[in-house]
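Progress report, Aim 2. The chain analyzed during this reporting quarter is listed below.
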Amino acid sequence: MDARKRFTQLVSLPEVVDLAEAALLIAAEANPELNVAAYLTRLDELGAAARRQLASRRSPDQCVAQLNHFLFIEQGFAGNRADYYDPRNSFLNDVLDRRTGIPITLSLVYMEVGQRAGLPIRGIGFPGHFLVKYAGEVNIIVDAFFGKILDEGQCRERFKAVLGPRVPFDRRHLEPATNKEILARILGNLKQVYLQKNDLPASLSCVERILLLTPDNAREVRDRGLIYQQLECFRAAAADLERFLQLAPDDPSAGTVRAELVALQRQAAQIH
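Predicted C-alpha cells for the chain:
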C-alpha cells in the first residue's frame, strides 16, 4: 500500500489516529522508500531508554527534568535555527536522524518518547509555536524547540508577540491538540515551505491531505482552488472556489475569490 492510501486509511478510522505512523506517512509520500516500521521501532527504543532513566524519578517536575535531559542533552535534539524552512524539518524520520527540526516535529518526538516512557505528555497547538505539556496532577509546559520549561507568564508574553497586545489571552490555547489537528498543522507548515519554493504539486499534495483530516476546512479548499488555478486545472479550481464561498461567504478573502471565480468560469467554459 502506498503512503497516501495508508494515510487515508489511517485517518479515516473511528479510533484515535496513530500520530507517529501518520507523521511518518507524510514523510513517506516524499520518500517512497522510507521504512516506516523501522522509525516506529526507533521511537520505541528511545521510549524504553527514557523509561529506564525515569524509574527512580517520583515527582512530575523530576520526570520532566529527566526527560528534557535525556532528549535535549544526551540525545542532542534541538531546533534547527540555521535552516528553519528546510522541508526535512517537517519529516519525522529526518528529525530522528538529524536530531533537529521545527517546534511541532520536535514536540512530536517529545510526545511519542514521553508517552512510551509512561508520562502523560500532550501537544499544545499554541499560536505561532507548537508546545508540549505534562498533563497530569500538575501541568508543566515545555518548548521542545529551545529545550526549556515555560511558565504561564512566558506563554502570555509569547501570545502577545504573535497576536498583538489587544488580543486577550485565552487559556484554551494551552489545552491539548487532537492528533488530527497536529497532523494538519505539520502539513500546513510543509505546504507553506513548498509554496515559498513555488513547488505547486508538492503544495497541492499537502492541501489534499489536510482536507482528508478536515474536509470542511474552508481556507484549505480555497487554497487548493488557487493552486489548481496556477496549474491551469480551471474546472477543478472553479469547483473549489465555489465550495469555499459556500463554506465561508463572509471570509475577508471572499470578495477577491468571487472575482477570481468569474474569470475561472470563463476559462473553464472555453475548454472542450
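The two ends are 35 Å apart (CA to CA). Residues 102 and 224 are 24 Å apart (CA to CA). These observations will guide the mutagenesis work planned for the next reporting period.
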